[in-house]
């Protein structure tokens, strides 16, 4: 019987009849640079001091997402995770997100005043993987870089729960709380609450 079910599933796939099945994948726009684009990403001059000031003026947190053309993990995040309404709405409402290209030549001005290309900034900040998200505080000392001042770094592709927990942990400034609940403990608690059916 399992073999028969497998053959039937293969036949459905071959006929393209699985479109009625639920899926979280979505068509995602690609820019000329080959990077995925969303409506919550900001097109700025990439002067991080200006971006931070604008984020603060809007009451949002600045986040930098580093991606690259052809990144399968970036594609996974943009097709399966970022489009989820609960996450997309949260990012849109709480974050000012600036996208950068791991191999890009667009000029970036770091918080320490150094002007360099995106790819030079990626090397300076020690970024090796995409996607990587840097979450910035509301104030950055003039002598610090984006990497030095980040309150959290999210390297790689994660599921919806982990991703929304990270954005929430940053937005709520839980990294400042003196309660011993670092992100891992916070995330573990949120997993348990979701398993218990809590919506808080």
Automatic annotation (TrEMBL):
Residue ranges occupied by any Thioredoxin-like fold domain in the UniProt entry: 56-139
InterPro entries: SoxW (IPR041737), Thioredoxin-like_fold (IPR012336), Thioredoxin-like_sf (IPR036249)
Keywords of this entry: Signal
Source superkingdom: Bacteria
UniProt KW Signal keyword: yes
Signal peptide: 1-25
Protein name per Swiss-Prot or TrEMBL: Thioredoxin SoxW
The organism of origin for this protein: Roseovarius nubinhibens (strain ATCC BAA-591 / DSM 15170 / ISM)
Taxonomic lineage: Bacteria, Pseudomonadati, Pseudomonadota, Alphaproteobacteria, Rhodobacterales
């Amino acid at each position: 019987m399992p073999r028969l079910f497998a053959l039937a599933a293969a036949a459905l796939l071959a006929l393209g009849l699985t479109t009625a099945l639920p899926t979280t994948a979505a068509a995602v726009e690609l820019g000329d640079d080959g990077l995925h684009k969303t409506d919550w990403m900001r097109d700025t001059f990439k002067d991080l001091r200006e971006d931070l000031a604008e984020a603060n003026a809007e009451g949002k947190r600045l986040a930098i997402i580093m991606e690259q053309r052809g990144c399968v993990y970036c594609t996974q995040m943009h097709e399966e995770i970022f489009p989820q309404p609960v996450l997309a709405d949260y990012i849109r409402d709480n974050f000012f997100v600036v996208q950068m290209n791991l191999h890009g030549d667009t000029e970036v001005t770091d918080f320490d005043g150094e002007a360099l290309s995106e790819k030079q900034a990626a090397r300076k900040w020690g970024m090796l993987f995409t996607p990587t998200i840097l979450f910035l505080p509301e104030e950055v000392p003039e002598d610090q870089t984006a990497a030095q001042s980040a309150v959290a770094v999210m390297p790689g592709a994660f599921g919806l729960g982990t991703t929304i927990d990270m954005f929430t942990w940053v937005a709520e400034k839980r990294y400042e709380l003196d309660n011993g609940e670092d992100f891992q403990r916070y995330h573990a608690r949120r997993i348990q609450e979701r398993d218990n059916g809590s919506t808080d």
